[in-house]
TrEMBL record:
It holds the Pfam family GARS_C. The lineage of its organism: Bacteria, Pseudomonadati, Planctomycetota, Planctomycetia, Planctomycetales. Belongs to the GARS family. Transmembrane segments: none annotated. It comes from Rubinisphaera italica. Keywords: ATP-binding, Ligase, Manganese, Metal-binding, Nucleotide-binding, Purine biosynthesis. Its cofactor is Mn(2+); Mg(2+). This is Phosphoribosylamine--glycine ligase. Pathway: Purine metabolism; IMP biosynthesis via de novo pathway; N(1)-(5-phospho-D-ribosyl)glycinamide from 5-phospho-alpha-D-ribose 1-diphosphate: step 2/2. It catalyses: 5-phospho-beta-D-ribosylamine + glycine + ATP = N(1)-(5-phospho-beta-D-ribosyl)glycinamide + ADP + phosphate + H(+). The keyword Ligase applies. GO terms for molecular function: ATP binding; metal ion binding; phosphoribosylamine-glycine ligase activity. Residues 107-343 form the ATP-grasp domain.
Length: 469
């Protein structure tokens, strides 16, 4: 069987690596791929957004299964085009991909399915959004005390509020795709106003920011649920936990993800069953009822609140970096699962088997990320022979220049390791991190610490000493 993986990140490297283990797979292509995917597949110089060229290639090479990694080709309709041409592809249609392509659409679907999520309001008009923020908080910082305050909106209208201070943050989101950077947790009105203006007036995210959602900030522990879906059958994978904030202790701006671990103690078997029954199944039923049945990877970002699990967001593809530790633990044949799902026969595939050992993935990033960063620095310490059953380096933002592997993206590597327990998995991952260098390389030092009781004292053995590694 020939397989085409679309994308060029760490997720795609992990997919290529895992698919290559299947005895049914004879050849893998990755478009466009990176320096790491070339270890297991033949890279093809086609953009993941160039649907016409991807389709022409798949026809020419008689590809048996195509697996899109990122959200962009899915939202552009790659699945529709491939199926129209009679090709087997794993993923949601363009209509179903709106679950990630538009946060407003996702909220409407959740409302119809009675899926628990944050209260929200949508704006495509700057003045109305600004007025709402002023009305809600009067321009003060989030706090519990009360005091009167006069504020003025964009049109010079005067507001007076007896409770201008917010008791908890709000979340402002660009409605469309923004590469993981279109969400701001706002701790005061100035932050909210700045981000809203950036989206609606500053064209920060282009068309993706032409509409914004303002919603309540859910409090609790986060978890990522990945499920394989064929429209009728749902197979959940072991839960993981991502680390979105750039810096330790969840400080700094949001990123595409600075690390993840799997499994997470936040989700036990009973809770996974509850999430399946109250979130995943109702969502899949509602999508079918709306005329856009869902097939592919259903990614539910969950917040475990005091009221129970609530959905932060839905994505329609494998998460990145969650895919790396999840697939590191998966013992089943991934190709068999995805091929069956693409054909609507997921029910015929055995339940996935898992390595009982936990896995930790630490993302190494370029200096300046998630803002501007420099590219082209040679990466030292990347010997594929060092990869083993217990540790592996997945390439995300890498390329080959003058025969050397260099950084070409913000998130560069996902250093992933197994261990007999979570502490050992973390230690194994950071030991690999210490042996990899390029100018300006850095990472978070606390990946997986959320899973450990705050009273535990054995932090020193897994500690990374500096921000730059």
């Amino acid at each position: 069987m020939k397989v085409l993986v679309i994308g060029q990140g760490g997720r795609e490297h992990a997919l290529v690596w895992k698919l290559s283990q299947s005895p049914q797979v004879t050849k893998i292509y990755c478009a466009p791929g990176n320096a790491g995917t070339s270890q297991h597949a033949e890279n093809v110089d086609i953009s993941d957004a160039d649907i016409d060229q991807l389709l022409a290639f798949a026809k020419r090479e008689k590809i048996d299964l195509t697996v899109p990694g990122p959200e962009v080709p899915l939202v552009l309709g790659v699945v529709d085009q491939f199926r129209k041409a009679g090709l087997t592809i794993f993923g949601p249609t363009k209509a179903a991909a709106e679950l990630e392509g538009s946060k407003t659409f996702a909220k409407q679907i959740m409302r119809g399915a009675k899926v628990p999520t944050a209260d929200y309001i949508t704006f495509d008009n700057l003045n109305r959004a600004v007025n709402y923020i002023h009305e809600r908080c009067g321009g003060g910082r989030f706090a519990s005390n009360e005091r009167p305050m006069n504020v003025t909106n964009e049109e010079g209208e005067l507001f007076q509020r007896t409770n201008p201070l917010w008791e908890q943050p709000i979340v402002v989101k660009a409605d469309g795709l923004a590469a993981g950077k279109g969400v701001r947790v706002c701790h005061d009105a100035d932050e909210a106003l700045e981000f809203v203006r950036d989206c609606l007036a500053g064209n920060r995210f282009g068309e993706a920011g032409s509409r914004v959602i303002i919603e309540e900030c859910l409090m609790g522990e986060e978890a990522s649920i990945l499920a394989i879906v064929d429209g009728k059958t749902i197979v959940t994978l072991d839960a993981s936990q991502d680390h979105k904030a750039a810096y330790d202790d969840d400080q700094g701006p949001n990123t595409g993800g600075m690390g993840a671990y799997c499994p997470t103690p936040v989700i036990d078997a009973a809770m996974m069953d509850q999430i399946t029954q109250t979130i995943l199944i109702p969502l899949v039923h509602e999508m079918k009822r709306k005329g856009c049945p869902f097939g592919g990877v259903l990614y539910a970002g969950i917040m475990m609140t005091r009221q129970g699990p609530k959905v932060l967001e839905f994505n329609v593809r494998f998460g990145d970096p969650e895919t790396q530790p999840v697939l590191m633990r998966l013992k089943s044949d991934l190709f068999e699962m995805l091929y069956a799902a693409a054909q609507g026969k997921l029910r015929d595939v055995p339940e996935p088997e898992w390595d009982p050992r936990p896995a930790v993935c630490v993302v190494m990033a370029s200096k300046g990320y998630p803002g501007d960063y420099e590219k082209g620095f040679a990466i030292r310490g990347l010997d594929p022979k060092s990869d083993s059953e217990t540790s592996r380096v997945f390439h995300a933002g890498t390329s080959i220049k003058d025969g050397k592997i260099v950084n070409s993206g913000g998130r560069v590597l996902g250093v992933t390791a197994l261990g007999d327990n979570l502490d050992q998995a973390k230690l194994n991952a950071y030991e690999r991190v210490k042996g990899i260098r390029w100018e300006g390389a850095w990472c978070r030092k606390d990946i997986s610490d959320k899973a450990r009781p705050k009273t535990e004292a054995n932090v020193e053995e897994t500690k990374v000493e500096t921000d730059e590694v």
